[in-house]
Hints:
Elements: H1 4-8, E1 19-22, E2 25-28, H2 33-36, H3 51-56, H4 61-65, H5 76-92, E3 95-98
Amino acid sequence: FMSLDELSKFDGVQSAKIYIGLDGDVYDVSSAASFYGPGGEYHIFAGKDATRALAKGVLDEEIVNERPGDTSDLDGLEIMKLEDWKETYDSKYPIIGKLKPKSKL
């Protein structure tokens, strides 16, 4: 299991590797560094748990940083979006681990 602090080191700046947390899984998105690396459109997700922001469909650093991984207040449409993003990430990027559950953070 990887903590949010450990995940934060894989942001394409502190490390060449770029990892993103999504719904409890950690994906290696380094192959898409042009999107997730420094200067990339989705760099705000690099080294973070992107669950809430992707489910809500927003590129907002405040949303990325608030309650990482918390899905308790997502509505049905947001849950569907999250499931769609999971399918996309599962088809494109390797899962390299799991995020520590909230109770273990």
